Every structure is written in structure tokens, then in C-alpha cells.
Amino acid sequence: MGFLEEFRIVLDTLNAHRARAILTLSGIILGVATLVALSSAVSSAGLYMERTMQDASGENVVSVSRRWGNDEGEKRAPPLNKFDSRALAQAKSLEGAM
Questions:
Q1: What is the pTM of this model?
Q2: Composition of the chain by helix, strand, coil, percent to 5
Q3: Are residues 85 and 71 in the same domain?
């Protein structure tokens, strides 16, 4: 038997059992679509959780206060001035410096 003859036998069998063939194909298609949708949902949830944790931890936030900690820090480091503030605001790695 050649390939074309076997292919014709397959088509005849599918025509003889149309309902079974349609149900089988729809089951396969729905199964693959479900796996793709679940994979996408899990990936999106992971990215959402990662972004939420970054926002909650303040990873992209810099807080500068003059009266934080003990007074010895003021003796070691000079106070910040408006030039320092402008330099922080222009830094590309800091998103929200004021």
C-alpha cells in the first residue's frame, strides 16, 4: 500500500465516524488551549507578585532625612544641599528623587 491509499483509508474512516473525529479533535484543541491559558495566567501572576513585592519593599525608593539615626552621622557627613537634591533628581537610576 502506498501513502495515498493509506491516506484515503484514513479519510474514509474519519468520514464514517465524523462525530468521534470531531469530538477527539475538539478535545485536543481545548486541552492545548487550556494549557496555554493556564501557563499564561501563572506567568502573569508571578510577574504581578514580583512587581508587588518590589513596590512593597521600596527597592526603587531612596529616603533622605536629616534627623534620622544618631547625631554622630551628622558629624561625619555634611548636610545635603539643593545641588545634591538636583543631582539625585537627574540620576537615571533613581526614579522618584525629590
A1: 0.47
A2: 70, 0, 30
A3: yes
